[in-house]
UniProtKB/TrEMBL annotation:
GO cellular component: cytosol
Molecular function per GO: sequence-specific DNA binding
The entry's keywords: DNA-binding, Transcription, Transcription regulation
Protein name, entry field: Lrp/AsnC family transcriptional regulator
SMART domains (UniProt xref): HTH_ASNC (SM00344)
InterPro entries for the chain: AsnC-type_HTH_dom, Dimeric_a/b-barrel, Tscrpt_reg_AsnC-like, Tscrpt_reg_AsnC/Lrp_C, WH-like_DNA-bd_sf, WH_DNA-bd_sf
Biological process terms in GO annotation: response to amino acid
Length: 140
């Protein structure tokens, strides 16, 4: 991957719907070059998909939180497997330091969030948790 690929990816991250001709003008390369690079990046699995970003107030997102999870022994794979099937878990992140995993959670109401958190805390081998409810999100 070279500088043009990295600049192309940055432009696509900003707006994946930017027309190829506009991308070519910004990168100062031919339209066919941009098209070929996007195709190559997709085929190589560098670009695995495109998504929609929404304003934080566009949808009622309910309660969002990050739960830090401590796991007893060497049971991380089992805990990740259990979390992967939980409907309130949006993402699971491994980390270093005090916590073994970070789970992103979402629920429609505080009551539903409380039930989800209690269910997660009851998963075997979860030794300790610490949860922070997300109040606001700012794009950097």
């Amino acid at each position: 991957m070279d500088t043009i690929d990295r600049e192309l990816i940055a432009l696509l991250r900003d707006n994946a719907r930017t027309p190829v001709l506009t991308l070519a003008k910004k990168l100062k390369v031919a339209r066919a070059t941009v098209h070929n690079r996007i195709t190559r990046l997709e085929e190589q699995g560098v670009i695995i998909g495109y998504t929609v970003r929404l304003r934080s107030d566009a949808l009622d997102q309910g309660v969002r939180a990050i739960t830090s999870i401590g796991i007893s022994g060497h049971h991380a794979a089992e805990v990740k497997h259990a979390l992967r099937g939980h409907p309130n878990v949006v993402a699971i992140h491994t980390t270093n330091g005090r916590w073994d995993l970070m789970a992103e959670l979402r629920a429609d109401t505080l009551e539903a969030f409380d039930r989800a958190l209690n269910a997660i805390r009851s998963i075997p081998h979860i030794e300790n948790t610490e949860t922070s409810i997300l109040l606001s999100t700012y794009k950097m």
